Amino acid sequence: MSLPVTSKVPFGGDHNPQQWPEDVWKQDDLLFDAARIDTVTLGVFDWALTQPAQEVYDFSVLDRIVERAAARGRQICLATGTGAHPPWLARAYPEVTRTDFEGRRHRFGQRHNSCPSSPVFRRLSAELARRVARRYAGNPAVVAWHVGNEYGGACYCDLCAAAFRDWLRHRHGSLDALNTAWYTTFWSHTFTDWDQIEPPSALTEHWRGPDHTAFQGITLDYLRFMSDAMLTNFLDEKAAIRESSPDVPVTTNFMGMYRPIDYHRWAPHLDFVSWDNYPPDDDSAARMALTHDLMRGLKDGQPFWLMEQTPSVTACRDVNPLKRPGLMRLWSWQAVAHGADAVLFFQLRASRGACEKYHGAVIGHAGRSDTRVFREVAELGAELERLGPASLGARTPARVALLFDWDSWWALEISDGPSRLVRYQQVVLAYHRALWDAGVDLDVAAVTADLSGYDVVVAPALHMVKGDLAQRLEAVAARGGSVLTTFLSGRVDENDNAFLTDVPGPLGPLTGVRVDEWDARGPEVVNPVRLGAGDDRIEVAARLLFEIVIPQGAEVLGTYRADFYAGTPAVTRNCFGDGHGWYVATDLEQAGVSWVVRQVLARHDLLGPYPDVADLESAVRVAPDGTRLLFLLNHRAEPVRVTAAGSGVDLLTGDRITRGRPLRLPARGVVVLREQR
Ligand code: GLA
Ligand code: ZN
Description:
This protein is of the alpha/beta class and 677 residues long. It has 17 helices and 27 strands.
């Protein structure tokens, strides 16, 4: 099963009419019609409403809400309501609340607060999902099921400890295997009974927080276990839904680059991916593109739903800047350009009280339609209606893969040494930024993905190399492709134990280098790196980590300029089969990363149409019938003038566009060009 079947890009978002008297529901309906809102997500936090006591289920309010939305012709993404448990549950069963990293058993409060291993929580959350599904499964307006909400966090209670031991038995089989994997002879940790194993927390293996652990193997397994434990909660509810709803797709809303949950392990269990886009600032266009691509890559390029974004402001940050005019529209189109087959907001009407009362909404507290935000939402609604089905199911024709790996992320950031300053996301973002600037259509892929269709594979900070990954990367190069990897790659196996070979471990033959030593320095220490030769050479800054490379056949394309390793390689390229294995041994500033990435791309003719126009993003989607859509997104606050890269019709304006003719995009402007060949 895949995405909900719809006739256009669903438009709307989270709606919580249960917070309001019914005369407000009527106002909302009129306003939704005016904004072409055709889809509502209902009931995300309804547990206390639909099950006010353990023996009492009461769907009377939700019935009216669902009936009303259906009667107005809206599609419903219906939640199971288990994102927050009700007070009576925590009171009757204190085990359902979580124990935190410091070992404190929490009492009732907040949301996303249930222990994933609690049998009571598992039973009652599944039972609620079962009843919700049974009640509304036959309603044709229900096009998707929304399980829980933004799964995340962690629990360290005794129930989780017991479940962890079971998980470990399953993973390692025997205590001998576990002791080997965790390297327990170090510091007298040899376990002789499963019950001796404790969750790694501030009370056990950790100091200075969750990233400082004495045993990376234990902490890594706990991260994997916690991600799996929460997945079990999702699967409990999904199975309960399936009893009465065999055909309606099930999702839960992800959070993009969210460290605690390994979405690659989750995604096969979702019918379709959805995610909530709350960028840290309004200068994150590249980061959002990366995250959309990551979400699309979770299910092999299948489109996803943008489940939430704010139309205007968030509330949870210390400072919550307003989306400037045109930004909400631009970012919505960016989502569509990268594979979103729905554009939904959190939220449709603002809460009156509690911590989200200042969170932006399509409809504010005064219920007006003559606000800037409402107007922009309504205009976008009209545009999406004009687009119709053109982009639904369309795929990204990527020949470049950027590898993203939660295990590498975890392993790198819980490691003592070489440097706490190297952050996985920062390294990935820098390489992605270079590809994005060059206008490359790319997939963000799991390390287990099929790499046989790619010309270029970029694997930044591929700290952990598992399974047959090294061979599959070699195969890319052998048939003429390029593989690019960086410092801190090829360091550890799946248990976070070092390879007993030269660094970069199994990536050695492909990269043709050997690394015996590395030097970590504070951010103030710069070692200049000279890239290229002759008149084209440039010098860029490198920081944080300097690996000292001894070529084993690789050609040197960049060298350090300072310190005792001045003149030694910082960037290399190795011929491997018909292609290349590249190695970047240090944290180059963006200009350096871009230089390397463009060298790689040059060999494969993969630049986008405007590689040298800053902040003009391009992205291609190919519809199931073969129609090519070229999205152009001007992220600048000024107009940009370029030459049209294709001919066809702009689906937003109906204007004809002719290749080679001048094309002007207004500030934050968007073109969706349906190309004619
Ligand atoms: C998340 C949640 C929503 C809401 C928004 C606010 O994405 O899923 O319930 O809290 O954040 O930004
Ligand atoms: Zn627990």
